[in-house]
Structures are given as structure tokens and as C-alpha cells.
Amino acid sequence: MLRKLSFLLIPGTCQLCTTPSNREFDLCIHCENALPLNEGACKLCALPHPCVTNNVEICVECMLSRPPLDLVHAGFIFSPLIKTMLHRIKFNKGTLDSFLLSHLLAKQLALVYASQTLPQLILPVPLSLLRLMQRGYNQSAGIASQLGKELNIPVNYKLLKRTLHTKPQTQLNREARQAALTAAFKVSGKLPCKHIALVDDVMTTGATLHAQALCLYQAGAQSVHAWVLVRTPKRT
Fold first, then answer.
1. Do 103 and 75 form a contact (C-beta atoms < 8 A)?
2. Span 37-83, pLDDT tens digits
3. Which CATH architecture has domain 39-231?
4. What predicted TM-score, i.e. pTM, was given to this entire model?
5. Where are the alpha helices (DSSP H) in the chain?
6. Do 203 and 42 contact (CB within 8 A), yes or no?
7. Domain ranges for the chain
8. Which of 112, 119, 142, 216 is the residue whose CA sits 20 to 30 A from 157?
């Protein structure tokens, strides 16, 4: 069951622009509209597709080449405000931005799993030791912590490890990402359950999440889902 958490700012003001607001989540209508929901998305790649409806939940691309993840849910698609918030989350320890987007994502997930079983364990996407030292924290761990609290699911921060430092994924194409990530992850210890959710801030090509899912399957997982704040549009 979703736990109700209070926001960090003064109640009655928008959490993003601080204008007076008594709407749900304390967001003014302008800021809420600037956070575009990822609607009509494929449940395996989280990309919006015109062919995806209530009866058809998987896009043609995923039907032809099924990804290793059993379900992917992304809360939002890119917008100027989302881009700014993500930058603060990733590079400036944007605690409030992370709190807000994670809370909204948790509300969505509660609806997604209303008729199915929630994963038993949450694993944040790990950073390499070098990148963790450079950045000082793992933004995915913060998101996972928030989701774990609101959805009442345990979070393990040490089970999944990144053993290789790779180039920033935004600098690589799809093929290069997959090659770089093939042996980048390992499971440290025995999996305590079979149904797992991976958590990250952004999904671009999916190569990182796919590599981790394959690693978890090799370690004995039976079902791996992925939850991300934002899905980037498909590159052409």
C-alpha cells in the first residue's frame, strides 16, 4: 500500500515555483502541465507508440525482438522542466526534485500494480566506484529509497554491483552501449527473492537496464521489472 509522505516545502505552495497552490501534490497547474506523463507507452520499452492501447500493450519492435525486461514503467517523457530537474538530481543533489518525481512515480506504480503482484525487492542501478567518487552520491539510490518507502518494498544497495567503469552512456550509440555493458555488472551474493525491480533516473536505449536484467537472470531471478523517472524519445 502506498504510504503518504509530506513534502519538504511549506504546504499550500507549488513545490516547483512556490506560487500558492492547494492542488494534489501541491503543484500548480502550470508546473503539472510541464511534467508530461508518459502515456500510451509500450510495457516492455516504455516508448510511446500509437499502436499501444489497452488491448495491445506491446509495440511492434518489442514483439519482433523481445527485451529481457518483463515490464518497464517510466513516469514522464522529456520536457524542458524535466531536463532541468534531472540535471539537478544527477549533478547538484536535487533532493526536492528527486523527492517530487519519485513520489509521483510511486503513485503511478500503485495503479500499475493494482491488479498484479509488486516486485519483492528494489535494486538501484549502481555506479562505478570512480563515478561514485566523482559525483559523491548515486541518484538512483535516492529514487529507489523513496519508492521503497512509499510502496513498502525493501531496497538492497549492495547486491548489484558495477564492476567496470564505462564512458558516459550519452556519448555512445546503442550498439556501443551494449558492448560496453556486457560484463559491467555482477550480483554480489545470493538473490533473496525471484521478482525484482530495477530503478534508474533515465532510460535512453535501455542497454544499461537490459545488461543488469540479464545479470540477474543468470543469478536466478525469474522476473525483472524496471522503473524509471523519465524515458527519452527514440533516436532517429
1. no
2. 998 899 999 998 876 665 668 998 999 999 999 999 999 998 888 98
3. 3-Layer(aba) Sandwich (3.40)
4. 0.85
5. 29-33, 60-64, 80-91, 95-112, 129-135, 139-151, 174-181, 207-218
6. no
7. 9-35, 39-231
8. 112
